[in-house]
Structure formats: structure tokens, C-alpha cells
Design brief:
Layout (H helix, E strand, L loop, with lengths): L8 H18 L14 H23 L3 H18 L5 H4 L7 H21 L6
Helix pairs in contact: 2-3, 3-5
Length: about 130
């Protein structure tokens, strides 16, 4: 540590302890025994950006009054989320990792498939 540093060694170790406690508190308790993902963190973030991109497409479709297509793509995005839940670590997935991988995947896939089925089953008003 340089003599010009505003932090004392005690402050530095306290900051490290707080960071460790924060990591522990933010860890998903349902995934503590799950091995880490074999994918690089940057690739895992890329998968999440793909999900966010699908949500942007959904928003655009709904704003343009193509709500059936938007709902179908939203269902597709939820199925995609169910798949990436198995590939991305909970600490990177953040608030999208609510429960265990198994529960989150089954819930997202079921909801997504139901939305896709409903979107395909609704007749358009013009026909």
C-alpha cells in the first residue's frame, strides 16, 4: 500500500470483509452445491444479453401493435431463459435466478410454452 493511499490497512481489510459478506448474502441458497458453469463469464453475460435483446424485440412488437407476435416472442424468450438457467451461474444471472435451477427452468419453460400456445391459438381480428 502506498504512503499516499487514503485507506489504512485496517480500512482495506474491513472493505474486503464487507465484500465477502455481501457476496455470501447475495448468493442463491438453492445453488450453493451447484458446480460453476464451464462457460467463461463473458459468454454467460452474452447469453443474458441475448435474453435482454429478445425482450427489446418484444417491446418493439407490442408498441407497433403486433401483440400476438410479441407474446409469442416473449414465450420464446422464457423458453430461452429456461435453457440458459442451466448454463449461467446464479451470481451472473442475478435476479433472474430465483429458486433452484430445476424449478426456475421448469417454471420458465412452462410459462413460455403456454404463452406461445396462446399466441398461436388466438385468431386475428381481421380474418
Amino acid at each position: 500500500m502506498s504512503p499516499n493511499s487514503p485507506h489504512t490497512p485496517h480500512q482495506h481489510s474491513a472493505h474486503a470483509r464487507i465484500g465477502g459478506v455481501r457476496e455470501h448474502l447475495l448468493a442463491n441458497p438453492h445453488d450453493r452445491v451447484v458446480p460453476p458453469s464451464p462457460l467463461r463469464a463473458s459468454l454467460q453475460r452474452g447469453l443474458i444479453y441475448g435474453f435482454a435483446g429478445l425482450l427489446i424485440v418484444v417491446f418493439g412488437l407490442i408498441v407497433m401493435n403486433h401483440w400476438r407476435r410479441g407474446v409469442f416472442i416473449l414465450g420464446l424468450a422464457l423458453v430461452y431463459l429456461a435453457v440458459i438457467r442451466w448454463l449461467v451461474d446464479s451470481r451472473i444471472l442475478g435476479v433472474l435466478a430465483v429458486r433452484s435451477r430445476k424449478f426456475d427452468s421448469i417454471f420458465s419453460a412452462t410459462l413460455g410454452l403456454a404463452m406461445m400456445w396462446i399466441a398461436l391459438g388466438v385468431e386475428s381480428l381481421g380474418s
